[in-house]
Prior knowledge:
The chain has 236 residues and is α/β, with parallel strands linked by helices. The chain has a single domain (9-135, 177-225), classed as Decaprenyl diphosphate synthase-like (Undecaprenyl pyrophosphate synthetase). 42% of the residues lie in helices and 15% in strands. The protein has eight helices and six strands. Helix 5 links the parallel strand 3 (94-99) and strand 4. Helix 1 (17-23) packs across helix 2 (28-34), helix 2 runs parallel beside helix 4 (68-91) and helix 4 (68-91) packs parallel to helix 5 (107-119). The chain is globular and about 60 Å long. The structure holds 3-methylbut-3-enyl trihydrogen diphosphate (2 copies) and magnesium ion (MG). The site of one 3-methylbut-3-enyl trihydrogen diphosphate has 11 residues, from strand 2.
Amino acid sequence: MTEPPVPRHIAIIMDGNGRWATRRGLSRSEGHQAGAEPVRAVLRAARQAGVRYLTLYAFSTENWGRPEEEIQGLFVLLMKYLQSEVAELMATGVRLEAIGDLETLPALAREALTVAMDCTSGGRELTLTLALSYGSRAELARAASLLALEVAAGAREADSITPQTLAAKLWTSGLPDPDLLIRTGGDMRLSNFLLWQCAYTEFYFTPTLWPDFGEADFQAALDSYQTRERRFGLSV
Length: 236
Ligand code: IPE
Ligand code: IPE
Ligand code: MG
């Protein structure tokens, strides 16, 4: 018997913190706070399952439109998470990366992120990528602009641009495409996450709100993935 396939790269849209908090009469920020434990649980479960890349949608380009207080709370939480987890990430061979328009992050959060990425750069077990101020449309527009500059400078011909050259200009360059995308919180949409990269990704949607998501839910997503037949457009 061959072993069931383990997704090499899992991407997660961690949605539902606000609704989780509202149902309990708590502030949205308290909902985001409650979302930290599932991150630990999923990271642990992913390592144990042999997943090599875990990418978490933590803050979208569009999330900048939320109230200032909620945004600030989110970046404070990010800094707390990085501070409390970096030793554990190092000890378990996890390399931290980030994708998105990182220049727009508050300076202190960006610094904390840089320190954590430097400290964990030797990790070889799993790459944990945080999508922060990330939006696929901004990512694709930026890639187009970088290629246009190369053409304008005479460094390349316009007709030399292929899917591979474009992919190499995305924030995700170096990351394989996700095999499995999980979205919690019940909505069935991508919300501007990894539009290009998910061309052949398997999707798993669950009504479970992110703060309630645990190892059993992660295992259910893996089980579902293992029933899928991926064809990549080929006949079988
Ligand atoms: C996801 O939870 C976390 C972020 C977008 C930062 P939400 O805050 O979107 O929670 P809901 O969807 O309103 O419940
Ligand atoms: C997607 O959730 C972004 C993150 C989880 C970071 P949103 O809550 O922002 O998405 P919409 O607004 O429901 O599409
Ligand atoms: Mg949401």
